[in-house]
Design a protein that fits this description.
Mean pLDDT: 90
Number of helices: 5
CATH class: Alpha Beta
CATH topology: Beta Polymerase, domain 2
Strand content: 15-25%
CATH superfamily: Beta Polymerase, domain 2
Shape: globular
Largest sheet: 5 strands, mixed
Distance between the termini: 33 Å
Structural class: alpha+beta
Number of domains: 1
Length: about 130
């Protein structure tokens, strides 16, 4: 079963929040098939520990502003890999070294990529 429309909307919110804080290499994967309890992973890179923390804070704030509370947050102290669990979507905010080391994209390479349509991108497309 593919990711739900609600999860895809959450992916867009997470991606837009990450981009607002200069998150890089944002990738969303539909993991609903192999995992079943989560629809999507959003993987984001931050340039340094403070950037990773700022990205995670912005994601949390934007999801809350859109009516979704986090269920769990792990890794805040070190700012190297912060995991934010929103139920249907899990955001992984990595320092670039950790992202390369853990290689989540390699682990989940069989999962389809979810195209990211951030609200800013949707507005720009609508203006054409």
């Amino acid at each position: 079963m593919p990711a739900t429309p609600n999860a895809i909307a959450h992916v867009a919110i997470v991606a837009a929040a990450a981009e607002a804080k200069q998150g890089e290499d944002v990738v969303a994967l539909d993991v609903s098939g192999p995992i079943g309890i989560v629809d999507a992973f959003v993987i984001i890179t931050g340039r340094n520990e403070r950037n990773v923390q700022a990205i995670a804070d912005e994601i949390e704030d934007e999801m809350l502003a859109n009516g979704t509370k986090k269920l769990r947050r792990e890794g805040r102290g070190l700012g190297r890999w912060i995991l934010l669990d929103f139920g249907d979507v899990v955001a992984h905010v990595f320092h670039e070294e950790e992202r390369m080391f853990y290689g989540l994209e390699r682990l989940w390479h069989d999962c389809p990529v979810i195209p990211i349509a951030t609200p800013a991108a949707s507005t720009a497309i609508g203006d054409l």
